[in-house]
Amino acid sequence: MRARGAKVTDIAVIVIAADDAVMPQTREAISHAQAAGVPMIFAINKIDKPGANSQKIYEQLSQMNLLVEEWGGKFQSQEIAAKSGLNVDKLLEKILLEAELLDLKANPNREAAGTIIEASLDKGRGYVATLLVENGTLRPGDLVVSGQYYGRVKAMFNERNKRTEEAGPAAPAVILGLNGCPTGR
User: Fold this and answer.
1) 181 and 127 in contact (C-beta within 8 Å)?
2) In principle, which of 50, 148, 173, 184 could form an S-S bond with 167, CB 3.0–4.6 Å?
3) Per-residue confidence of the chain (185 residues) as pLDDT tens digits?
4) How distant is the alpha carbon of residue 44 from its chain centre?
C-alpha cells in the first residue's frame, strides 16, 4: 500500500514523533518515497511534549543519508505540534513552496484521470474502489476504466464517507459501479 501511494504522490510528508525515534515503518515509507523519486518534507511532530528531542530525529535521519536544510541538506523539515496546531501553517507553506518549485498543476476542466489505490467487494454495495484523481474532475455517471474492469460511477464518496458530486485534481474518492475488482497496478 505504501509503495502504491508513493507512486501516485507528488510530495511525501514524512511525520516523525519528536519524543520517539525513526521507527521501522517510517524507514519503509522513506524508502518507498526514495524509490518512487518523490521529494520529501519531514514533519517533526509532538515538539510540545516533555522529552521531545528533534535534534535526535535529525541525527537519525542523517545516519540514513537524509540531511535536512538546517543541517546543510536538501530536505525541508518543520517542527510541529499537530494537537495544538503549532507551526502547521508553516508546514503548509513549505508544502506549497515545494509544489511551486516542482510546477505542479492540473486542469480540473477535462475528463478525469487517476489511479485506483485499492478496491474490494462490499457485500451490500458491490465493487468499491478508492481512487486518487490526478487530473480533471470525476462526477457520478462518468465512465471509469481500470485494466479489464469498467463501469459508470453510480455513487461517489469523499475521504470522510460523505456523498459528493465531484472529485477534482488531488482529491480522493470512493466510487461504486465497477464490474470487477482492479488489482491496483
Assistant:
1) yes
2) 173
3) 677 777 788 999 999 999 998 999 999 999 999 999 999 999 999 999 998 999 999 999 999 999 999 999 999 999 999 999 999 999 999 999 999 999 999 999 999 999 998 899 999 999 999 999 999 999 999 999 999 999 999 999 999 999 999 999 989 999 999 999 987 54
4) 17
Q: Spell out the SS3 assignment of the chain.
A: CHHHHHHHCCCEEEEEECCCCCCHHHHHHHHHHHHHCCCEEEEEECCCCCCCCHHHHHHHHHHCCCCEHHHCCCEEEEECECCCCECHHHHHHHHHHHHHHHCCCCCCCCECEEEEEEEEEECCCEEEEEEEEEECEECCCCEEEECCEEEEEEEEECCCCCECCCECCCCEEEEEEECCCCCCC
Burial 74-95 (b: 16+ CB within 10 A, else e): ebbbbbbbeeeeebeeebeebb
Q: How far apart are CA 145 and CA 112, in angstroms?
A: 11
- In this prediction the pTM is 0.79
Its CATH architecture, for the domain 113-178, is Beta Barrel (2.40)
Residue 112, C-alpha cell as written in the block? 478525469
